[in-house]
Amino acid sequence: MNDTPSTAAWGKAAAGAHSTAGAPGPHGAVSDQRPLRLGTRRSKLAMAQSGQVAQAVHQLTGRPVELVEITTYGDVSREHLAQIGGTGVFVSALRDALLSHEIDFAVHSLKDLPTAQPDDLVLAAIPAREDPRDVLVARDGLTLETLPASSRNGVARIGTGSPRRMAQLNAWARSHGLEIETVPIRGNIDTRVGFVTDGELDAVVLAAAGLTRIGRIGEATQFLDADAVLPAPGQGALAIECLAVHQVHGTALAAQLAELDDPYTRVAVTAERSLLAALEAGCSAPVGALADLLADGQIVTEMRLRGVVGSTDGTTLVQLSTTGPVPSSSEEAVALGRELAAEMLDKGAAGLMGERAL
Ligand SMILES: NCc1[nH]cc(CCC(=O)O)c1CC(=O)O
Q1: What confidence score (pLDDT) does residue 29 get?
Q2: Is-same-fold flag (7-127+237-261; 134-223)?
């Protein structure tokens, strides 16, 4: 499925890249100049976030970093994502390239990663996350509050292919006495914003982080409060993945990349993904989760975890929240996610997860 890799390089010594990358270097410091290969999808968003990580890894290691483009089935297929297997489609080709030593590391949007971690691979670093919220990109600078009144028949047509966004937008509109119609769309960020600029839809909902990374956050007309629309677990965070035991040029790459890890982001997204896993929900389930830190001035005091699951028509939402000490380990973060998921299941969450539900 991978086509011929093409490369772009960060840092010096890119010319010598192809013959030696990946081979264990016997000469200590000298081998540190040989390039690291970063596997990336071709999309504008993937290229933007891989480029940013490439810069950071170059600065960290002093080594050139070259981008190796990998085409995934999710990029090629025009079929609906659900029909070709959901979450894993964007990820598996990159993981295959890691396992076959074609690339040294990969960058994923954390929210697109399945919650189960393959044995031989590690999320070596989860850097500090971007704004995790969703945003509205609406015509004429409008917002959720102002859009319906100026739309045809008083009904704002809002594009999103995400059951999570549909459920929460519909519930929000219902509770505010406003009429919206959620219209299923898919495609990359440019395509989705295009539905608004070409007049086909009144608005679309997107992740702030994606728009920021491709330089289009200025087109957002409203940041959606997490109390109204809770983002997807892991939204706004990246994961840098590599082989667990891979030695590149005599150094354990995972240990080096770990310097880019942000411990607060890691515990937060670990709790969010644990909640998702414990609900036995996939990426297409209407589940939102967000862990955030509460601070007293500069001092972080507690972590709050919020979770939501709903019916896509917005008639039923199970929304819960818990606040406690900041987890001091991944195990504690996992436990927190599981506890909140168990409470959500008690309140009927399973019945809201479509055919996956019992
Ligand atoms: N579902 C696709 C996807 N995967 C990651 C992002 C960007 C945001 C992020 O990294 O969390 C997006 C676009 C979106 O949801 O608008």
Answers
A1: 47
A2: yes
* C-beta 207 within 6 A of ligand 1: yes
Q: Tell me, what's the ipTM? A: 0.96
Would the CA dihedral through 172, 351, 109, 156 be positive or negative? negative
What's the CA-to-centroid distance between 117 and ligand 1, angstroms? 20
Over residues 337-345, mean pLDDT: 96
Name which residue sits closest to atom 12 of ligand 1, judged by CA. 210
Highest CATH level, class, for 134-223:
alpha beta
Q: CATH homologous superfamily for 7-127+237-261?
A: Periplasmic binding protein-like II (3.40.190.10)
Give the tokens for residue 86: 């959901």
Superfamily of domain 265-353: Porphobilinogen deaminase, C-terminal domain (3.30.160.40)
Q: How confident is the model at residue 10 (pLDDT cuts 50, 70, 90)?
A: low
Q: Is 181 helix (H, G, I), strand (E, B) or coil?
A: strand
pTM of the model: 0.88
